[in-house]
Amino acid sequence: NFVMADMTYYIALTIIQSGIVYYVTVLLQYDKEFTTYFMGGSFILSIVGFYALVNLAVKRFGKKRVMSLGFVLFACTFLLAAVLGNALIPKMVQLIIMGLLAAIPLAIFSIIPNAIIADIIYAHEQNTGKQLAGMFFAARTFMMKLGVALGSLLFPSFLLLGRSVDNDFGIRFSGFAALAFCLLGYLLFQQYEEVND
């Protein structure tokens, strides 16, 4: 359940990462350099602003609850990506909100999945006496790469439905598709039984 949820996260993330240039240039009609500002700003903010908070939240609420929150916040980010440029909110404010919203789950998914794998490895070793850390990390890496590959395959297919200012359906559909994968990941992750708080 954990690696399947992790895979759906990577499908959604890859779709959004592939599409960010279209969200910025087509839906918001900004220059391409704003893509760099958005990606760089979200990444730096996730490290500087939220890594420590994620660790504190895990100590208080547990890994499963915090990671579940990450799925929900990413789903909100993907929903916002799908409707960019259509609201009464100024476009720059929409981009800033999306960047701020994305920074929190980026921090969560950078920290917690590896900690969960470590918990699973420890529990397995305690139950069986066998140390199979390499196999567990390999399985997670395989599913991660599979998620990236599927996301990379799906996004260009969505663009066939429309990728211009006059017809942006494919771009918007990609945001809703990422949202759907993220919600699927959330549901799968709820089936995961936390082995160590």
Shape: globular
Measured distance between first and last alpha carbons: 18 Å
Counting DSSP H or I runs of 4 or more residues, the number of helices is 6
Strand content bin: under 5%
Question: Whole-number average pLDDT?
Answer: 92
Low-confidence stretches: none
Structural class: mainly alpha
The secondary-structure element order is HHHHHH
Rg (CA only): 18 Å
Number of strands: 0
- Residues in helix, %: over 70%
How is the biggest beta sheet arranged? none
Which features would summarize this protein structure in a list?
single chain, 197 residues, mainly alpha, globular
Can you describe what's shown?
By secondary structure, the chain is mainly alpha-helical. The chain is 82% helix and 0% strand. The protein has helices spanning 2-27, 33-61, 63-82, 91-128, 133-159, 169-189. α2 runs antiparallel to α3 (63-82). The chain is globular and about 60 Å long. It starts with a helix and ends in an 8-residue tail after the last helix. The mean pLDDT is 92.
What is shown here, in short?
The protein is built from 6 helices and no strands. It is an all-alpha fold and 197 residues long.
Topology:
Blueprint: H1 2-27, H2 33-61, H3 63-82, H4 91-128, H5 133-159, H6 169-189
Helix pairs in contact: 1-3, 1-5, 1-6, 2-3, 2-4, 3-4, 3-6, 4-5, 5-6
